[in-house]
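Changelog note: in this version the structure field was regenerated for every chain. One regenerated record is shown below for reference.
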Amino acid sequence: MQSRKNRIRKNVMDCLDLSRELSDEEVGGVIDRCILDEAAHEYIPVKEKVRLKAEIFNSLRRLDVLTEYLEAEDITEIMVNGYRDIFVERNGQLERVDSTFESEEKLLSVIQQIVAGCNRRINEAEPIVDARLRDGSRVNIVLQPVSVDGPIVTIRRFPKEAFDMNRLIALGAISQEVADLLGMLVVSGYNIFVSGGTGSGKTTFLNALSGYIPKSERVITIEDSAELQLKGIDNLVRLEARPSNVEGNNAVTIRELIRTSLRMRPDRIIVGEVRDEAAIDMLAAMNTGHDGSLSTGHANSCEDMIKRLETMVLMGLDIPLVAVKQQIASAVDVIIHLSRMHDGSRKVWKICEVVGMKNGEIKLNTLFEINEYNSALNNARGMFRKVNDLMNIDKLLRAGMLEVYQDVQREI
C-alpha cells in the first residue's frame, strides 16, 4: 500500500510544473490524473482513491500526516516523538495513531514549513522554537542534539471559534452564578490573574473572560506567540514578541512590549502569559491606572501564583522581598485557579481575592471553591461553594455595580 502511494506521489512530482506557482486546484488535478493512471493497471476502490488523493495532497501542500489531526475537532493536542511515533489527545485521553512520516527528512521539511510561516527559525545551533500555525495552534519544536531520539513536535490546538463563558458553563467548567460575578469584576476593572498547570485551559478561560470587557474600551494584547482570540472589541491592538535574529540581535521582548503599550493609551492590557521578569512591568501597569488588566501564569494554586510572581519579579530586580510583596498586593485583585481533572476536563478550582498584607505576607480571601469532588472517579462535578464575600468593593462601587453584585451574591 505504501509503495503504491509512493509511486503515485513520484509520478505527481514528475508531472508538476515547478517553474511557476501552482494553485491547489492544479495540484489536485495532477494527483487525480496520476491516480487514474495507476488505476488503469491495478483496480483501486473509490474510497482508496479519495484517501490517496488526500494523503498525497497533504504531503505536497500542507503538513503531511499532521493535516488529518489538525482538522479533527475532537483532538486538542498532537505529539510527534520522532518521525515514527505520533500521539494525540482526543477528548482528554492520550492515544497513539497509526500514521507516521515517511522519513525524518520529511518531518524536518514540515518543521521548516511551520517555522517559516511565522517568521521563526530552527536549526542545530538553535534547536528549540515556539511557533504557531495559521489557525492559532501553538507549536513547540525541539531538534537534535537536544532531542535524543529525533525531532519532537508538540501542537496545542485551540477551537476555531473561541470558547465563550456560556460554552464553559455548558461544559461544567464554571457555574452560571460564579461566571456572572466574574463578569461584574471584569467590567468594574479588577486586575485578574488566571493560574493553572499546563493544559488546564488558562488561555481559553482568558478568552472567555475578555468577552465581558466593554466594547468601548481600547485593549492591547501582548503575547510571546499570538494565540488569544478576543471577539467583539473594535479598538484592539495585538502585539507579539520577536526572537533575536541570526546574529543574536533585534529581539523584542514581552517587557519591551508592555512598556511600549503604556504609551498607546490602553484602557486594559492583556498579557497572554507572564513567565519571567516581565512580571515587573505587568505589575507596574496594573499599579499605574490600567485597571482591568488580565494575565495568566503557571502555578499549582492561588497561593503558589503569588510565590511565583514574587520569584519572577526578583529575577529582574534586586529589591527587598517586602517591597515586591507590596507591589503584588497592590496590583493584583483576584486570582482564578484552574485545574485539569484526570478525566481530561478543565474546571475552575478556586477563586481568591488579594486583600493586602499582614505580618509581611500577602493575604488571600477565598471567594469560591469546588464543593464536590469524587476522588474515586477523579471527577469534579462543578459544584461551587461560596466561602467568603468580596472585601474590596471600591471598584464595584465606582462602576455603579455594587448593588447588582450584592443581589447576585445573595442568590448563591
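Spot check on this record: The chain has three domains: 1-61, 63-157, 165-411. Residues 256 and 278 are 9 Å apart (CA to CA).
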